[in-house]
Amino acid sequence: MKRILLAICLSVFCFGASATVEETAIIAIKSGESYWVKQPRIQLNNNELQGYDRTVLVGFYANESGFITSTKILESSGLDEIDKKVIMAVKMAKVKPYQINGVFYPISAKQHFTIMVSRDAEYQKLPVIPVIKLDLKGKDRQVVIYAEADDTGNVTRAEIKESSGLKVLDQYVLHEYLKQARFKPLSINGKFYPITKSTRFYFSEKDAIE
């Protein structure tokens, strides 16, 4: 199952205005005044996203050392489990300790997260293409096939993107690919998303049929 890894850029803080600085103040940080030294890392898969890109806005507090002390969902993704994973990632993150004139202060801030469904198409079943050792002509070979499919996952176009160096082998691999290949339909944000994919097939003499 494909997993989606979200690493937050340091420049995308969205903060409120600065507060008056006092010994016990919690400073509301402006954009660019602080940044992650340990970024929130969120792992989600397409099933968890349920076919939709998601956004979450999290408010948080960090202490004088930069550790996150509390968090709150300000704008939900619409799914509780995703919100929980985002909150957990923020709690495990760390920001650069904030200081003014050599004095460190706790801060409050907001962070937007955008989590996108993978656009990488998946096969219903990856084509299995056996080759005869003699057809490899004394060396390992590889072929890359570029394919497009309709909204049901049926291949509508396929062509050799990278040749094995042997025209007969290329034609055989393409023929077998067209017989077997079928994709899982790809729906994103409630709409069909065009399926395109390049797949590399390796053929080694060691594994070829004698």
Strand and helix map with partners:
Elements (H helix, E strand, L loop, with lengths): L2 E5 L19 E2 L7 E3 L2 E5 H4 L4 E9 L5 E8 L4 H12 L2 E2 L2 E3 L2 E3 L1 E9 L25 E9 L5 E8 L4 H14 L6 E2 L2 E2 L2 E9 L7
Parallel strand pairs: 2-10
Antiparallel strand pairs: 1-4, 3-7, 5-6, 5-10, 8-9, 11-12, 11-15, 13-14
The ordered string of helix (H) and strand (E) elements is EEEEHEEHEEEEEEHEEE
Give the CATH class of the largest domain. Alpha Beta
Helix content: 10-25%
Work out the strand percent. Answer: 35-45%
Q: Give the overall form.
A: elongated
CATH topology of the largest domain: TolA/TonB C-terminal domain
CATH homologous superfamily grouping of the largest domain = TonB
* Tally of structural domains: 2
**Structural class by secondary-structure content:** mainly beta
Helical stretch tally:
3
Mean pLDDT: 86
Architecture of the largest domain, according to CATH? 2-Layer Sandwich
Sketch the major β-sheet.
4 strands, mixed
Low-confidence stretches: 1-24
Taking the alpha carbons of the first and last residues, their distance comes to: 34 Å
Main sheet: which strands, in order across?
Answer: 2-10-5-6
Gyration radius, rounded: 25 Å
The total count of strands amounts to 15
